Amino acid sequence: MQLKNDLFLRAARGEKTERTPVWLMRQAGRILPEYRAVRASLSGFKELVETPEFAAEVTIQPVDLLGVDAAIIFSDILVVPEAMGLTYEMVESRGPIFPKTVKTEKDIDQLLVADPEEHLGYVLDAIKITKKALNGRVPLIGFAGAPFTILAYMIEGSGSKTFSQARKMLYTEPAMAHKLLQKITNTTIAYLQAQVTAGANLIQIFDSWAGILPPAHYQEFSYKYIKQICDALPDVPVTVFAKGAFFALEDFGKLNCSVIGLDWNMNIAESRKLVGPNKTLQGNLDPCALYSDFATIRKETKKMLEAFGPDRHIANLGHGVYPDTNPDHVRCYIDAVKEFSAQMR
C-alpha cells in the first residue's frame, strides 16, 4: 500500500524530505486521556497489550490526536521473556516484576526459543489490525528490546538502578550470559521478522540499559547481539536506540541499520561525526523540556533542529515522553518541528 505520508521512512533511508518527520517514544500511552479511558476499561496494562483490538486503538490515537508522522505498535519489550517462559507482572507505580528469575544454566535450558505466531500472535494481530485501520496514513514501527536489556530484567527480576545481579553474571558466569543472550537473540530475530511480515515498516531496537555497562562489556554482551538482529532484517530500515551508550556510537556507525537514536545527553555534532555520513540520527530533545512554556519549547526545538540540520534527521525526544506531560505541550513540540524544519529547507 502506498503511504500518504512517508516522510519518516524517507528520512530513515537518507532521502531528502520537505520537512523533518517527528514522532515520540511512548507516544501511545499515559499522556493521553483517551489512552487512560481505554486502559481504565480493562484489568490493566497486560490485558491492553494482549488484546489486539485495544492495542491497535491506542497505537493510532497519537496519529489522530498529536499529528505524529509514524505510529509505533503498543506493546512492551517484556513480551519476549514472557514468550520464552518467564512471565512478568506489571505492578502500578513499581513497574515490571518477574516472580521467577534466571539463576542457573538449568533455568536457561528450560526457556523456549519462542515461536512468534504461537507465543506472540497477539502482537502480530495488533500490527495487522493497526495497518488496516491506518490505511496508509503513516508508517508503523515495530520493536523489541535489545538482548542485553532483556537479560537484565530476566536476571534481576525487576527494574534497578544498578542491575548488579545481571552485571555480576557477566563477570562470574560469562559463558552462561552468552548462552542466555543467544537464546534471547534467536527469539527476537524470529519475532521481528514476523512483525515485518505482519506489516511493520521499520523496526526499532531499544537497549534501555546500555549505559550501565562498561564499554568492553557493551561490545561483548550487547553490540554483537544487536548486530545479529540488524543483519537478520534486510527488508526494512532498522533504528538502534541505546540509551547512555555514547561510547558505542562509532561502532553503531558500522551496523547494518539505517537510524541511530540519541538520548538527550549525547552531543549532536560529535555523534554525527562518530556514526559517519550514512546513518540518520533520531532524537534528542530532553523530555523535561516539554514541562516548560510554549515559547521555551519552541526555542529548544528550533535549537535542536539547527544542530541536526535538515538532512538525515528524525525528530524525537531523547527518551520516552514522561507520563505527566501536558498533551498540549507535546503538540506544541510537534507543531514547532513541522514549522521550523520546513523553513530550514
Please provide a written account of the structure.
- The chain has 345 residues and is an alpha/beta fold.
- It has a single domain, classed as TIM Barrel (Alpha-Beta Barrel), CATH 3.20.20.210.
- It has 16 helices and nine strands.
- The strands form two sheets. A seven-stranded parallel beta sheet has the order 1-4-5-6-7-8-9. Strands 2-3 form a two-stranded antiparallel sheet.
- Helix 9 crosses helix 10 and helix 15 crosses helix 16.
- The mean pLDDT is 97.
- This is Uroporphyrinogen decarboxylase.
- Catalyzes the decarboxylation of four acetate groups of uroporphyrinogen-III to yield coproporphyrinogen-III.
- It is found in: Cytoplasm.
List the helices and strands and how they pair.
Elements: H1 7-12, H2 33-40, H3 45-50, H4 52-65, E1 71-72, H5 79-84, E2 89-91, E3 95-97, H6 105-110, H7 116-119, H8 121-134, E4 140-145, H9 147-156, H10 164-172, H11 174-198, E5 202-207, H12 215-231, E6 238-242, H13 249-252, E7 259-261, H14 268-275, E8 280-285, H15 294-308, E9 313-317, H16 327-344
Helix pairs in contact: 4-8, 9-10, 9-11, 10-11, 11-12, 15-16
Subcellular location: Cytoplasm
Organism: Adhaeribacter terrigena
EC number: 4.1.1.37
Assembly state: single chain
Give a short account of the largest sheet. 7 strands, parallel
Strand order of the largest sheet: 1-4-5-6-7-8-9
Please state the structural category. alpha/beta
- What's the total helix number? 16
Total strands: the figure is 9
Relative strand content: 5-15%
Q: Spell out the helices and strands N to C.
A: HHHHEHEEHHHEHHHEHEHEHEHEH
Q: Mean pLDDT, as a whole number?
A: 97
Computed over alpha carbons, the radius of gyration is 19 Å
Count of spatially separate domains: 1
Q: pLDDT below 50 for ≥5 consecutive residues: which ranges?
A: none
Kindly state the percentage of residues in helix: 40-55%
EC number: 4.1.1.37
Pfam family, one: URO-D
Organism: Adhaeribacter terrigena
Keywords: Cytoplasm, Decarboxylase, Lyase, Porphyrin biosynthesis
